[in-house]
């Protein structure tokens, strides 16, 4: 009997031991609900990258990774529940994939000592690492997006936007309103006219907004949309014959499913981006070989190379590289969340490193520091080719107006610090 | 003509067109409520399910492909053929009739005689079930809807050039009217005429009205309640399919189609839950009201007024006519 008990105890310890040593990466995904079409490819990309690391490299630094997926349905309450139910599993970093969830998790993750990465969404002023110790939003933020769009227009218009009319069609939510302040500041600086056209959730009916655009004839329409709002806006723009090359969406309005339903009429539509698009990267051969062909892909394998799949994969790559950095800093492969935070703060992404990972020119080179959690804020522009059904990067990852953005970040993060009695770090 | 007046006329016409689309959704609610007293929370999801089924059949998609692949380790996604829209429409109608039968057989037959709130709760459950079932059956990708009666006769979209030119010559400003909205208006007109003719001049239609008036009396003269309810749910399924096609052509067929039900609620409150003409008139009033309010008042208050204004307008009507414009006034004597 004693022998049996001892055997069972040893077996239990052996079974538990690898789980304790795993590097746990929660994935707060949304594969159901109105935004599933965008949530699925991102979640697939995020999962497949970690599967690739396990299958090809045996994990990160020899420690296997474990993905902990939790369905949020893009719902803030469910997102917080997911966080609470998974944080005790040794979670290293959270990617909440929703601005609403991000706002709820900023104080929680800080208190729990778990870092959070909100890549291209969330609270922009979290780029100020002096105030937001556990939140990172590299390599770019919404305010970089707004400035990137204006800089692109400046380049297209000979450096002069005086009298240029810009209409912002935006999701009437905290997310959609994010670029307004930046655009208003840039309006003062560059002299363009800005009109604001909010669209209520979910955005299925936008006739009023597009009739107004037809009447006011703006030179450029910018869009901060998500979900069905994107598809309807692109269709309505096509209906009123608005030139697609003058219609620019934020990176959450520039995936394949946003343009496909409008067919050929969507040809020429543009979207901002902070990473590259397409399948022309060596890493996809490895994903095919080690993940898809072995039947271990997170989805059906049909999303590979799509814009949001690439974004999910890019997020996973940045998380994995931060984990490697943390392992190097602390001299241990089995890192904790606190050590992961240190790794994120010391993260350095170079072109050489990305090329070595099979992702040459996939995103900008950048480094993170204690003061700057937002990265360089470089923004590129992509364009949709309806005939070939492909997105192409049509610009370099260009600098944004950090003079304007930096001041706004300092102001907003300063208010947050004083409201929450946060002493500045990095001194 | 002053420019602002021309703009307002354009907004008015577009409001009418939008109202027709709202009415198309509201019609399905009215049919079921009128015949069975059930407020069908699942009507929006039925539109989604119908549109997904139509596109799935058109594209030769294998139903439950992900499930089949996960269980059997296969990689099947399509049959490799495309089905012409008309045949896909017929197959979809058959699927909606089967759904109506299943809903009646497995849900509402067991709830006969229950309180209306229980029946309403059952439709909420049905909505959630159908959402998941539709995703499982056809997956949650956004699908482009190309509905063509013949190779050259597809659902048109974009500006109607004849109206644009005519109004430009008449008022100095060319109005934008979407060809899809014009088509939806014609289809809605035919649909309403057909529904009224069906309920007035056919045996089944009259039986449906008898059931709507008094279940007990209808039963006593030999009308099968089960049959009538399957018939009504089938008709509501067909209306949902039409609404799904019109809305799906705008945005692609996707989950958000189920949310179009939100647009029908103020229409029902205003037009009454039991009147087919009420759904149409209610839709037109809501459509025009919200568009004109957005045009005149929206810029003063920051825009995005349409969603809440529709409900405010409906509530204003309710203050003066609680049963809605065309609803039945029920007087209970004690």
Automatic annotation (TrEMBL), chain A:
<comment type="similarity">
    <text>Belongs to the leucine-binding protein family.</text>
</comment>
<keyword id="KW-0732">Signal</keyword>
<feature type="signal peptide">
    <location>
        <begin position="1"/>
        <end position="21"/>
    </location>
</feature>
<dbReference type="InterPro" id="IPR028081">
    <property type="entry name" value="Leu-bd"/>
</dbReference>
<feature type="domain" description="Leucine-binding protein">
    <location>
        <begin position="28"/>
        <end position="385"/>
    </location>
</feature>
<dbReference type="InterPro" id="IPR028082">
    <property type="entry name" value="Peripla_BP_I"/>
</dbReference>
<protein>
    <submittedName>
        <fullName>Amino acid/amide ABC transporter substrate-binding protein, HAAT family</fullName>
    </submittedName>
</protein>
<dbReference type="Pfam" id="PF13458">
    <property type="entry name" value="Peripla_BP_6"/>
</dbReference>
Automatic annotation (TrEMBL), chain B:
<protein>
    <submittedName>
        <fullName>Amino acid/amide ABC transporter membrane protein 1, HAAT family (TC 3.A.1.4.-)</fullName>
    </submittedName>
</protein>
<keyword id="KW-0812">Transmembrane</keyword>
<feature type="transmembrane region" description="Helical">
    <location>
        <begin position="221"/>
        <end position="247"/>
    </location>
</feature>
<dbReference type="InterPro" id="IPR001851">
    <property type="entry name" value="ABC_transp_permease"/>
</dbReference>
<feature type="transmembrane region" description="Helical">
    <location>
        <begin position="116"/>
        <end position="134"/>
    </location>
</feature>
<feature type="transmembrane region" description="Helical">
    <location>
        <begin position="12"/>
        <end position="32"/>
    </location>
</feature>
<dbReference type="GO" id="GO:0022857">
    <property type="term" value="F:transmembrane transporter activity"/>
</dbReference>
<comment type="similarity">
    <text>Belongs to the binding-protein-dependent transport system permease family. LivHM subfamily.</text>
</comment>
<dbReference type="Pfam" id="PF02653">
    <property type="entry name" value="BPD_transp_2"/>
</dbReference>
<feature type="transmembrane region" description="Helical">
    <location>
        <begin position="38"/>
        <end position="57"/>
    </location>
</feature>
<dbReference type="GO" id="GO:0006865">
    <property type="term" value="P:amino acid transport"/>
</dbReference>
<dbReference type="InterPro" id="IPR052157">
    <property type="entry name" value="BCAA_transport_permease"/>
</dbReference>
<keyword id="KW-1133">Transmembrane helix</keyword>
<keyword id="KW-0472">Membrane</keyword>
<keyword id="KW-1003">Cell membrane</keyword>
<feature type="transmembrane region" description="Helical">
    <location>
        <begin position="267"/>
        <end position="288"/>
    </location>
</feature>
<feature type="transmembrane region" description="Helical">
    <location>
        <begin position="182"/>
        <end position="201"/>
    </location>
</feature>
<keyword id="KW-0029">Amino-acid transport</keyword>
<keyword id="KW-0813">Transport</keyword>
<dbReference type="GO" id="GO:0005886">
    <property type="term" value="C:plasma membrane"/>
</dbReference>
<feature type="transmembrane region" description="Helical">
    <location>
        <begin position="78"/>
        <end position="104"/>
    </location>
</feature>
């Amino acid at each position: 009997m004693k022998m049996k008990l001892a055997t069972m105890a040893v077996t239990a310890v052996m079974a538990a031991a690898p789980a304790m040593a795993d590097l746990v990466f929660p994935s707060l995904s949304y594969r159901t609900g109105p935004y599933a079409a965008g949530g699925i490819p991102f979640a697939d990309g995020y999962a497949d990258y970690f599967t690739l690391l396990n299958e090809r490299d045996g994990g990160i630094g020899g420690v296997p990774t474990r993905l902990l997926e939790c369905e949020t349905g893009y719902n803030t309450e469910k997102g917080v529940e997911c966080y609470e139910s998974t944080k005790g599993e040794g979670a290293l970093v959270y990617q909440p994939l929703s601005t609403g969830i991000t706002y709820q998790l900023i104080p929680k993750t800080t208190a729990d000592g778990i870092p959070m990465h909100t890549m291209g969404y969330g609270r922009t002023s979290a780029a100020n690492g002096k105030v937001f110790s556990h939140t990172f939003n590299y390599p770019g933020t919404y305010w970089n997006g707004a400035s990137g769009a204006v800089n692109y227009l400046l380049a297209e218009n000979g450096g002069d936007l005086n009298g240029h009319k810009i209409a912002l069609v935006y999701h009437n939510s905290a997310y959609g309103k994010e670029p307004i302040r930046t655009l208003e500041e840039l309006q003062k600086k560059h002299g363009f006219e800005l009109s604001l056209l909010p669209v209520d959730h979910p955005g299925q009916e936008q006739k009023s907004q597009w009739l107004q655009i037809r009447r006011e004839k703006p030179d450029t329409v910018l869009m901060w949309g998500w979900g069905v709002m994107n598809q309807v806006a692109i269709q309505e723009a096509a209906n009123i014959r608005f030139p697609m090359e003058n219609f620019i969406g934020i990176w959450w309005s520039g995936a394949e499913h946003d343009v496909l339903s409008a067919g050929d009429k969507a040809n020429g539509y543009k979207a901002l981006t902070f990473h590259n698009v397409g399948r022309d990267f060596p890493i996809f051969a490895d994903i095919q070989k080690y993940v898809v062909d072995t039947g271990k892909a997170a989805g059906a394998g049909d999303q590979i190379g799509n814009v949001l799949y690439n974004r999910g994969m890019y997020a996973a790559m940045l998380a994995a590289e931060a984990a490697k950095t943390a392992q190097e800093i602390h001299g241990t492969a089995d890192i904790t969340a606190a050590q992961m935070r240190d790794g994120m703060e010391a993260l350095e992404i170079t072109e050489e490193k990305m090329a070595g990972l099979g992702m040459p020119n996939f995103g900008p080179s950048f480094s993170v520091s204690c003061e700057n959690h937002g990265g360089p804020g470089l923004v590129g522009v992509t364009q949709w080719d309806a005939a070939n059904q492909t997105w192409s990067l049509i610009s370099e990852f260009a600098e944004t107006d950090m003079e304007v953005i930096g001041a706004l970040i300092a102001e907003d993060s300063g208010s947050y610090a004083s409201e929450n009695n946060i002493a500045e770090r990095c001194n | 003509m002053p420019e602002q007046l021309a703009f307002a006329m354009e907004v008015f016409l577009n409001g009418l067109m939008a109202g027709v689309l709202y009415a198309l959704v509201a019609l399905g609610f009215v049919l079921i409520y009128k015949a069975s007293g059930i407020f069908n929370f699942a009507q929006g999801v039925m539109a989604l399910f119908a549109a997904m089924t139509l596109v799935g059949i058109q594209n030769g998609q294998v139903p439950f492909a992900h499930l089949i692949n996960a269980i059997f380790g296969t990689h099947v996604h399509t049959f490799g053929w495309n089905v012409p829209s008309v045949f896909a429409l017929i197959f979809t109608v058959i699927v909606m009739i089967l759904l109506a039968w299943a809903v009646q057989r497995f849900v509402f037959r067991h709830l006969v005689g229950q309180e209306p709130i229980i029946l309403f709760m059952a439709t909420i459950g049905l909505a959630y079930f159908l959402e998941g079932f539709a995703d499982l059956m056809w997956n949650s990708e956004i699908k482009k809807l190309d509905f063509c009666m013949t190779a050259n006769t597809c659902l048109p979209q974009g500006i109607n050039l004849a109206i644009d030119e005519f109004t430009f010559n008449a008022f100095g400003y060319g109005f934008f009217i979407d060809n899809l909205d014009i088509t939806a208006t014609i289809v809605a007109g035919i649909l309403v005429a057909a529904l009224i003719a069906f309920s007035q001049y056919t045996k089944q239609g009259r039986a449906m009205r008898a059931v709507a008036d008094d279940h007990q009396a209808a039963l006593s003269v030999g009308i099968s309640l089960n049959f009538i309810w399957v018939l009504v749910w089938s008709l509501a399924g067909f209306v949902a399919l039409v609404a799904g096609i019109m809305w799906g052509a705008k945005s692609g067929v996707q989950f958000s189609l189920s949310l179009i039900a939100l647009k029908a609620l103020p229409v029902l409150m205003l037009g009454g839950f039991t009147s087919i003409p009420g759904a149409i008139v209610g839709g037109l009033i809501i459509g025009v009201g919200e568009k004109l309010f957005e045009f005149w008042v929206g810029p003063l208050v920051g825009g995005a007024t349409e969603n809440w204004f529709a409900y405010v307008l409906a509530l204003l009507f309710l203050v003066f006519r609680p049963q809605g414009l065309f609803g039945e006034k029920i007087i209970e004597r004690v």
